[in-house]
Amino acid sequence: MEQTLSIIKPDAVAKGFIGKIIDRFESNGLRIAGMKKLHLSTKQAEDFYAVHKDRPFYADLVKFMSSGPVVVMVLEGENAVLKNRELMGATNPKEADKGTIRADFAQSIEANAVHGSDSLENAKNEVAFFFDGHEIL
Ligand code: CMP
């Protein structure tokens, strides 16, 4: 059993895709072990994406991720990190396989509907960024 962090980003929340995206996880063996709707502050978005701070897209990414509400979730299941990444599809929705979340619900590399942890180690850090132990059930 693994846990991974998923974020439904401001674009997908604004378009009313929360339920449809959660259905992809639950229908594919990923259980929602924790969930909250938040409006990230600039500081929270900066800290969460600190690993990208030297990339040219960092400022725009922080602005976008704090532009409206998001839904953060702890997904739990067998091979949850990899399974979530398969369900999401490629970072750039134009390159995402048919039937993936990003192919179906995203518009651009920035407004790409969802974030998912890219390794088990990052998943642990990202889950701890948003959730206290007692919030994961
Ligand atoms: P995410 O999985 O949330 O991790 C970092 C995010 O940066 C990524 O999804 C994209 O939404 C965003 N991003 C914006 N521009 C780029 C880019 N040129 N390359 C990679 N990621 C980008």
Overview of the molecule:
It is a single chain. The protein starts with a strand and ends in a 7-residue tail after the last helix. The longest helix is centred in the last third of the chain and has 11 residues, at 120-130. The chain has a 4-stranded antiparallel sheet with strand order 2-3-1-4. It is an alpha+beta fold and 137 residues long. The chain has 7 helices and 4 strands, in the order E-H-H-E-H-H-E-H-H-E-H. Adenosine-3',5'-cyclic-monophosphate is lined by residues 52, 57, 61, 91, 109-110, 112, 115.
Feature tags:
137 residues, alpha+beta, 4 strands, globular, binds adenosine-3',5'-cyclic-monophosphate
Write the layout of secondary structure elements.
Elements: E1 2-8, H1 10-14, H2 18-26, E2 31-38, H3 42-48, H4 58-65, E3 70-77, H5 80-88, H6 101-105, E4 114-116, H7 120-130
Adenosine-3',5'-cyclic-monophosphate binds at residues 52, 57, 61, 91, 109-110, 112, 115.
In summary, what is this structure?
The chain has 137 residues and is of the alpha+beta class. 39% of the residues lie in helices and 19% in strands.
